[in-house]
Amino acid sequence: MRVSIAGAGAVGRSIAAELLENGHEVLLIDKAPTAISVERVPMAEWLLADACEITSLDEAALQRCNVVIAATGDDKVNLVVSLLAKTEYGVPRVVARVNNPKNEWLFNESWGVDVAVSTPRLMSALVEEAVSVGDLVRLLRFSHGDANLVELTLPPESALAGTRVGDVAWPEDTSLVTIIRGPRVLTPSAEETLEPGDELLFVAAQAREEQLEDLLSVRQESSGT
């Protein structure tokens, strides 16, 4: 897979190194000469250019990319790069970094963004995830379909503790993608039984999040007779 990354700062270089380790082809683009540090990521291609300019993106052959990542520290630049990548070059997957949470509402399909990654929001979500049991935590927003990656740690009192995955009537537009149980990462087969303390990761429509949280919450008290 060929990936172009706009922004060769610490974030861009880290992403590039990870992708290269996984066997992908990576091009780093930055307009600042001081950011071109080939020795830090020697296996990547490097381009000294302004990623907001069509001529630069032509030189980068963006039409050959499977993914473009807008990872600069400037939200305006990331939006322009995303829009150009999607509308001018038809890049299938565009991922954009959101630096200021106040700008998050802009990072959607209207600007060519498939996935928006807000570092402040993600850090906040990870803090919540570490201390919350039984509460739904939104980790990542996907622009297409208004879906989110959400997490919930199953409390011991949950009505679904001990239930097989295949026996649960999950809400519409919701998919259980992973179960994290201690050090293990499990593929949620229909026969897998949900256990208290399981970290459950879902891709779910935002409109279904409350319904999903209710489903996984503590047992309802039985009414007396």
From TrEMBL:
What keywords tag this UniProt record? Ion transport, NAD, Potassium, Potassium transport, Transport
Question: Pfam families recorded for this chain?
Answer: TrkA_C, TrkA_N
Q: Which residues form the RCK N-terminal domain?
A: 1-117
Give the transmembrane region(s): none
Task: List GO molecular-function terms, semicolon-separated.
Answer: potassium ion transmembrane transporter activity
PROSITE patterns from the xrefs? Answer: RCK_C (PS51202), RCK_N (PS51201)
Name the GO cellular-component terms: plasma membrane
* Residues annotated as domain RCK C-terminal: 137-218
Read off the InterPro entries from this record: K_uptake_TrkA, NAD(P)-bd_dom_sf, RCK_C, RCK_C_sf, RCK_N, Trk_Ktr_HKT_K-transport
Protein name, as recorded: Trk system potassium uptake protein TrkA
